[in-house]
Amino acid sequence: DATTFGTGQLIKAALQARCRTVLIGVGGTATGEGGAGALEALGLKYLDKYGNGISPRPKDLIRLHHVDWTSLDKRLSQTKIYVICDVTNPLLGPRGSARTFGPQKGARPHEVQFLENVLRKWSHFARVQTKDQPGAGAAGALAFGLSSFIGARLVRGTPFIMKLLNWERIARKASIILTGEGRLDKTSFSGKVIGEIIRRKGRARVYVVCGRTSFTSPLARKKGIQKCVEMGPNGFKNPAIQLAIATRKLGIELRNSPSL
């Protein structure tokens, strides 16, 4: 039922503010419609085989027969758009958007397959095919929609931001790095922030606060994490309180560490 329409509204607001370089950070979305909603906000219209307009919601997009490009915002042709994505997943297949991130967000097996079918159908209408490009599957495949339909450039998110922040210089001065992750698991090391931080941490020790983790302490240390504190299921109910408790636990450990 959900779409990325709001993201398209943000892009349009940037165009109206005369921005000609737009950076779009793509993380999780509440849907898997390949950016169809964002593109609708920028002027695309969708029709079924009878010529009736349909919404970009996945349950309607499965009936897509024709894309009307005539109202697409002309300012996009004079705008550089960078889609900043952490993950390297393509659009479709075992490592694709639906199969990788659908279960992570709560989709059941039949819903995952439905979203895969929607994205496969959607990909046939692209002007430039980027479905196999690393990162195309990011954020419910919003990255694919923006790159294949309006020519946005996909860039690796964390290195891009680290360069802007001059990360290497900052990390050299650090003895500890405190970072966070929604769910710490094997996907955290396939292009996401935490994996890049560990690769570029220098001599600093990395401490993590996360919502949930599937890692044991020895495995976390093997990955380069000194200690991870999990907020657990109560993190959803009282996030501010649980975050405070988690960081306090880390604070106590850091104060008692003789090497820091």
Describe the structure.
The strands form three sheets. This protein has a three-stranded parallel beta sheet with strand order 1-5-6. It has a three-stranded antiparallel beta sheet with strand order 3-2-4, with no helix packed on it. It is α/β, with parallel strands linked by helices and 260 residues long. Helix content is 40%, strand content 18%. The protein is globular, with a radius of gyration of 21 Å. The longest helix has 17 residues.
Rounded average pLDDT:
92
C-alpha termini separation: 50 Å
What's the total number of strands? 9
The secondary-structure class comes to alpha/beta
Estimate what percentage of residues fall within beta strands.
15-25%
What is the ordering of alpha helices and beta strands?
HEHEEHEEHHHEHHEHEHEHH
How do the helices and strands line up, and which of them pair or pack?
Elements lengths: L4 H12 L4 E6 L9 H6 L3 E3 L5 E2 L3 H4 L4 E3 L11 E6 L11 H5 L7 H15 L14 H13 L2 E4 H9 L1 H6 L3 E9 L8 H7 L5 E9 L3 H6 L4 E4 L3 H4 L1 H17 L5
Parallel strand pairs: 1-5, 5-6, 7-8, 8-9
Antiparallel strand pairs: 2-3, 2-4
Give a concise summary:
The protein is an alpha/beta fold and 260 residues long.
Sum up the structure in keywords.
260 residues, alpha/beta, 3-stranded antiparallel beta sheet, 12 helices, 40% helix
